[in-house]
Design goal:
This protein is 63% helix and 0% strand. The protein is an all-alpha fold. The termini are far apart.
Length: 382
């Protein structure tokens, strides 16, 4: 075979021009990077961003960071990494169904949780309290800090030097009002995150015996998913029943989101990125209007599920008891490093001169995995 036109076949610009909707963020329209770099010969800018995140130390550490269930026995329940991969899977499905930029969506999904400290939200709450008078702590802001400053590469500038669209997307999650209105790719990842944690936290809660599948079936959204699973598969027994229901629950939410979002794109006349931003900023329907959203009925069902999980799972006595013990270890270790700054790694000691010792200690502790935090705490003489 000869005469292959590789320029046409392998061109990411040509592929995007052919497959993406006008409302998508085309890579050729990127605003560039904070620190200019020459383009890659065959990878688009968002492909490069994705690879930088995947190869980062912060991403690797997600494998040993808690999603929800601190100290839970067994290997079934989600880590922060498996949650991230599930979000990425759902987000890519949404991107393809809505003609969005899959490379950008994948990048945003893979990077959205790299700022989480050990111990999940328990660790985040503890660091927020410890830093109450030093700027606070938020995992979304910490992810942006990792992307722009903390992660190291073989380059003459700090951070990962990601595209401005990736940084802006992460900045929208900090809700400090400084980021531009979210692209549809950002909205898709936010929606995928919600679908993943609602469904998979329920799965983990059943596996760990915190709730039963029958209790979940009392919720209208789960009951509808169960009915659809029975129509498709009959009534499987044992663990197969739970898996069938939860798979149907994901599919139900994704299908609703795709249908509603396609309708919104047409109804609101969304024909460009500028129009996406105008809709969100108040040109149509008031500030904060998201094109990618669920139907009112499904959104209400999700809210019921989230309230159930909050009351019966996240604030259950069993979870709160383990959470309190883990938080005490993190707080104690944080205070120890503040009192013994010479024990910090050299780059964190050096950075303390610029950002203050408490923030630099938080950067170090937040980067720990659950098991490293446990080891580091237990080796100290208290």
């Amino acid at each position: 075979m000869s005469g292959i036109d590789w320029t046409r076949l392998a061109s990411w610009e040509a592929r995007e021009a052919h497959t993406l909707g006008p409302w998508a963020m085309h890579s050729a329209a990127t605003a560039g990077r904070e620190h200019p770099e020459p383009p890659h010969p065959f990878r688009g800018p968002f492909q490069r961003d994705r690879d930088r995140i995947v190869h980062s130390a912060a991403f690797r550490r997600l494998a040993h960071k808690t999603q929800v269930f601190t100290g839970a026995d067994g290997d079934y329940h989600r880590s922060r990494l498996t949650h991230t991969l599930e979000v990425t899977s759902i987000a890519r499905t949404l991107a393809r169904a809505l003609a969005l930029n899959e490379d950008l969506v994948e990048t945003l999904a893979l990077g959205h949780d790299i700022g989480h400290p050990p111990l999940g939200h328990a660790g985040e709450d503890t660091l927020a309290e410890l830093l109450e008078h030093d700027g606070g702590f938020n995992h979304n802001a910490q992810a942006l800090r990792i992307m722009r400053l903390l992660e190291t590469r073989a380059a003459p500038f700090p951070g990962l030097n990601l595209s401005r669209e990736v940084l802006d997307a992460q900045a929208t999650r900090t809700r400090d009002g400084t980021a531009p209105a979210p692209l549809l790719e950002t909205q898709a990842v936010d929606a995928a995150d919600s679908i993943a944690y609602d469904t998979h936290d329920a799965d983990d809660a059943v596996e760990l015996g915190l709730v039963t599948l029958d209790e979940l079936h009392d919720l209208p959204l789960v009951a509808e998913a169960a009915a659809r699973a029975r129509e498709r598969l009959g009534t499987p027994a044992g663990p197969g029943r739970r898996r069938a229901v939860l798979h149907a629950l994901v599919d139900l939410q994704v299908a609703d989101l795709v249908a509603e979002s396609r309708a919104a794109i047409e109804r609101l006349g969304v024909d460009s990125v500028a129009r996406v931003r105008a809709v969100f900023d108040g040109g149509v329907g008031g500030r904060g209007v998201r094109v990618i959203s669920h139907s009112p009925a499904l959104a209400a069902g999700k809210k019921q599920l989230e309230m159930f999980l909050f009351q019966r799972v996240y604030r259950s006595e069993r979870v709160m008891t383990v959470r309190a013990a883990a938080q005490e270890k993190l707080a104690r270790l944080f205070r120890w490093y503040v009192a013994h700054p010479d024990e910090l790694p050299a780059r964190f000691r050096a950075r303390a001169a610029d950002c203050g010792l408490p923030r630099s200690v938080a950067d170090y502790v937040a980067g720990m995995t659950d098991r490293y935090l446990e080891w580091d705490h237990d080796r100290r003489t208290w």
